[in-house]
Amino acid sequence: MKYSQIDQNLFILNRKNFVKKLKNNSLALFNAADEFPRSGDQNYIFKQNPDLFYLSGIDQEQTILLLYPDCPNPLYREVLFLRQTNDYIKVWEGYKYTKEQAKAASGIESIYWLEDFDNILHSIVHYAENIYLNTNENDRYAHTVPYRDIRFIEQMRSKYPLHHYERSAPIMRELRAVKSEVEIELTKKACSITRDAFVRVLKFTKPGVKEYEIEAEIIHEFIRQGGTGHAYTPIIASGHNANILHYNDNNQTCNDGDVILFDFGAEYANYNADMSRSIPVNGKFTARQKEVYNAVLHVMKEATKLIVADTVWNTYHEEVGEIMTEQLINLGLLTTNDVKNQSKNYPAYKKYFMHGTSHHLGIDVHDFAGRYTPFAAGNILTVEPGIYIPEEGLGIRLENNILITSSGNIDLMSDIPVEAEEIESIMNS
């Protein structure tokens, strides 16, 4: 792995918290993510199933985790099944976990090769009353291809039709939203790498540079510092491109007088940063650009104050909408009459700020958490307001990552330049 080995106690604790929430005499199974073909003879880079990683720390394909805390055979209460390496795999693919390495990473004592899975499962499954199986229940995702978990459910129901089947996802949704100290430190590391990449970009950007050249500077810094790579496909959107919310062609020239909207973050040890910034190509905002920029910055600062324990999602977004509405009126983009006549279902501010303000952050960039669950200490959320004005060829978005504590919150990106004057200063240094 590019990253330093994570303390196995994180995964031991995660498993303890998970099995506490199982019904009596229950067995739970978690599968590694699929390997996806990229072309005729190669796969895309493997990305682990976040739930399996959360419970085991194992970052390898074709892995299965079995948890059966009430198993009558103590040997099989926690079992990890791994793809067995051989001389051919060693030559062509390189590193794979040995049983000893997997034990050190996960804290699981019972490690077997994958070929033993069917026999071991069959020897104990009939003693279990319930079987917990996992699927991706992130409400931002809808599958069209039957991925490994879906195929596995069909296999299990075919082999063992009379067991009671339960969903692991509601338990994982509850657990993953609250970050431990180790997870917070890993997120801080991702934020730190992201900061250095942004400062590098500030010193690199000038009129005439291509968006993809800036992207190259970012990934250089990520990999140089041991990051896995991009947490998500980066957005390097100059000029009019900034009004395309998920723009990632990154193939245009950055012109003098334009603003570039960045949205990128590093991934480190499967934990993610998620940052947005907007900078002037020539190192100096125009008066209008700075006016819009400072309006977005004001909304971000005010929204951050609202990211505290017990805040309710809908109330939070409504309050941020009111703050944004005031700024849009000040900018001359909305009138009081627009607001007076606005639709309840589509407020006037949505014309210039059409996306949500926050999402949970963790192993997934849009991390698994309850949409209707109040914020709680240990949550990490983004705050990312934006103003997009196509008629002016201008889009501004600013985004930091906020940790909720028992006494308020901590901005994990407080050391990343965000004030307009500081950005100009670094670009012209």
Q: What this model shows, in words?
A:
- The chain has 429 residues and is of the alpha+beta class.
- Helix content is 35%, strand content 18%.
- It is built from 13 helices and 19 strands.
Please give the alpha-carbon distance between the first and last residues: 37 Å
Number of helices, where a helix is a run of at least 4 consecutive DSSP H or I residues: 13
Helix coverage percent of residues? 25-40%
Large-scale geometry: globular
Provide the spatial order of strands within the biggest beta sheet: 6-5-4-1-7-8
Sum up the structure in keywords.
three-stranded antiparallel sheet; alpha+beta; 429 residues; six-stranded mixed sheet; 13 helices; single chain
Please outline what is shown here.
The protein is α+β, with helices and mostly antiparallel strands.
Indicate the topology.
Layout: H1 9-20, E1 26-31, E2 37-39, E3 42-43, H2 50-56, E4 64-67, E5 78-82, H3 87-92, H4 99-106, E6 110-113, H5 117-124, E7 130-133, H6 148-159, E8 164-167, H7 169-177, H8 181-204, H9 211-224, E9 229-230, E10 235-238, E11 259-264, E12 266-268, E13 271-272, E14 275-280, H10 287-306, H11 313-330, H12 336-340, E15 380-383, E16 386-389, E17 394-397, E18 400-405, E19 408-411, H13 420-427
Parallel strand pairs: 1-7, 5-6, 7-8
Antiparallel strand pairs: 1-4, 2-3, 4-5, 9-12, 10-11, 11-14, 12-13, 15-18, 16-17, 18-19
